[in-house]
Automatic annotation (TrEMBL):
Chain ranges passing through the membrane: 16-39, 59-80, 110-129, 160-182, 203-226
Keywords recorded for this protein, A-Z: Membrane, Transmembrane, Transmembrane helix
NCBIfam families assigned: sdhC_b558_fam
Organism: Pontibacter locisalis
UniProt-listed InterPro entries: Cytochrome_b-558, SQR/QFR_C/D
Stated name of the protein: Succinate dehydrogenase cytochrome b subunit
Length: 228
């Protein structure tokens, strides 16, 4: 196991872990967005509350939540370690730098973007996940059965301008983070080819914009077009 430890504690090993966990988290975003689209059903929140109940009580989903949390922790930890290693390797900046000539804005600011996303994630979990898992939500009866009314919590939260602003700004940060991270993950894993890499880059850009736009539309819709 010594070779395994050395490999994945090295810079390239940590980049591989960053790539794998990043792609896993990207897949979670797709599932999460599909579930959140239930909010648009004109049924008083019944479909979304049933979906939330299923996610909260299904054993497989609960197990995957643990995997997801570990994925986040590994991703964040490796990002911090790699950033510190990069700074230690070049403690003194070059006299003249023109980073914009050979790198994108998102690639130069992944740390800032990641920090914005992390702060949003903490607020988001505290506002929705914690009461949904540990109590604090009002109840609602659907087809004779009682459920937590997470839909009401979502709608009420998206009536608050500053929360909507934080949400939308965070989705913009996430889009930039994904635009760089998507193609970077494939490159780190060696999945590059002169024929396919341009497609991967274009697909990653489109995917990042569409997913984050999908998330951002939800709070904007409830803030501007929905009344309790």
């Amino acid at each position: 196991m010594n070779w395994f430890t050395k490999t994945f504690s090295s810079t390239i090993g940590r980049k591989i872990i960053m790539s794998i966990t990043g792609l896993f988290l990207i897949s979670f975003l797709v599932v999460h967005l599909v579930g959140n689209l239930q909010l648009f059903n004109d049924d008083g929140g019944a479909a979304f509350n049933l979906y939330s109940h299923f996610m909260a009580n299904n054993f497989v989903i609960r197990f995957m939540e643990i995997v997801l949390v570990l994925g986040f922790l590994f991703h964040i930890y490796d990002a911090i370690v790699l950033t510190r290693k990069n700074k230690a390797a070049r403690p003194i900046d070059y006299a003249e730098q023109h980073p914009q000539e050979n790198s994108t804005w998102s690639s130069r600011n992944m740390g800032l973007l990641g920090t914005v996303i992390l702060v949003f994630l903490i607020i988001h979990l505290w506002n929705f996940f914690v009461p949904a898992r540990f109590g604090g939500l009002e109840g609602i009866v659907i087809e004779g059965a009682s459920y937590d009314n997470l839909y009401l919590r979502v709608v009420q939260s998206f009536q608050i301008w500053w929360y909507v602003a934080i949400y939308v700004i965070s989705m913009i940060a996430l889009a930039y983070h994904l635009i760089h991270g998507f193609q970077s993950a494939f490159q780190t894993l060696g999945l590059t080819h002169k024929k396919y890499t341009p497609f991967i880059q274009k697909f990653g850009y489109a995917f990042s914009v569409i997913i984050c736009l999908g998330f951002a539309i939800i709070p904007l819709y409830f803030f501007f077009f929905f009344e309790l």
